[in-house]
Amino acid sequence: MATNQGTRSVEELAIEVPAADIDAEIDPHWLDMQPSTSLPAIYLPAAMPGYQAPWRKIVAVSLCAVFVLATAAGVCLTYGPSW
Q: What sign does the CA torsion over 55, 61, 66, 69 have?
């Protein structure tokens, strides 16, 4: 593989990787160290099943529409007026 602008080929990188020790002992508790989920609950909370009040849906859709329309119109909602 050819190198481009300072990048190295896979072969060059493979030479630098040390070989695994044949006599290495595998940790018997390695499964205990693995998390049960890929993401913590704070990143991916459970969905809220059940009925939601219509006014909550209207407020959510209205807020999304305001931000989308303001962005489409070129209004800066992040920094405010540039005084």
A: negative
Q: Which of 70, 69, 68, 72 is nearest to 80 (CA)?
A: 70
Q: Which pLDDT tens digit goes with each residue over 6-37?
A: 688 888 888 888 888 888 887 888 767 766 66
pTM summary value: 0.37
Distance between CA atoms of 60 and 57, rounded to whole angstroms?
5
Nearest partner of 4 among 12, 45, 56, 74, judged by Cα: 12
Query: Residues with Cβ < 8 Å from 31, sequence gap 6 or more?
Result: none
- Mind listing the pLDDT tens digit for each residue in 63-74? 999 989 988 888
